[in-house]
Amino acid sequence: MLFRQAGIFHTDYAANRALFPVPVDRWMVGILLLLALTAPFTTSSLLLSTNLLPWLVWTSAALGLNLILGWGGQFHFGYAAIMGIGAYTAIHGVRNGIPWEIAVVLGGVMAAVIGSVFAFAALRVKGLYLALSTLALQYVMDWVISHVTVISGGVQAALQAPTLRLLGQAVTSETGLYYVALGWCLFVTVFMLNLRRTAFGRALVAVREKDYAAAVIGVNSFRYKLVAFATSSFIGGISGAILIFAFYRVATPEQFAVNVSIELLAMVIVGGLGSIIGSYLGAALILLMPGLMNSLIAWLAQVMGIQLGVETLAHIPNAVYGALIIVFLLVEPMGLGKMYNNLRNYLLVWPFGYAQK
Questions:
Q1: CA–CA separation, 238 vs 197, rounded Å?
Q2: pLDDT in the model for residue 162
């Protein structure tokens, strides 16, 4: 089939460590990239601005959370707060005359600094205690953002984001904002793809599997966990800033509340821990599936002539959506990314299925 590896020979280390050694993988990536680049010209404006653009930004955030959760094995229940830090820092930076590019990077740096400060205390504990420590970060930052008027303007205030200016040029069109989100998502994806091949990535995996065993072979688990927290927070801070400038246009404390952290955690878990394609699939399922379920059930009710009330239409899609997530996790606990890998591994040896046994 398409995934056949016959005739592929690794004669040097570079070929052996290639990101996509199988030709069909390179073709698939090229086709997806072409579809992404031409999406503004092949899809409707509504689909581009309400589905594709936020999906790319939330995928970037999910990849950042997957770095600490999937690669490092450390729970993080305060990632929305990290995104909020980056968003508000970038907004105030642009308002004070800092170029947008530098302001966004400053937002990532601020998120990394604050995330690392909490990590110093959080990484002293493990398991559920670590989860509670990061949840404390979420609640602390929720209170600070909501009640410090210099940051957000107050509990019920909304902070207007300045116009996004890339290299001094105002980006106001939906196409331009989409390409900004796409560029950042591609950058994070390439970073995560290469992370798996570095000594840092391998050390994180060793720490995730057993930190004591990693320490025996010379891996400083605390230092690698701290760097992972800082890197993950940096990605989250920039993702939060781009989310506000490119999508919401207005920042409010509710946009980075604890329920958002739980949704991000669900994106990573449903997509698959440590899976890059799983972050894309998990973000799509959590972000886009509720709207699709609403439309589908309303259409089925209309076709079948069933009269459903407004309250019923509001609850049935959520129940079906929740059941769908449970089914996915029952079929494959390792997430949607593992489902894709299972299918790909099957096609690698098809029709010789006995080769997998």
A1: 24
A2: 85
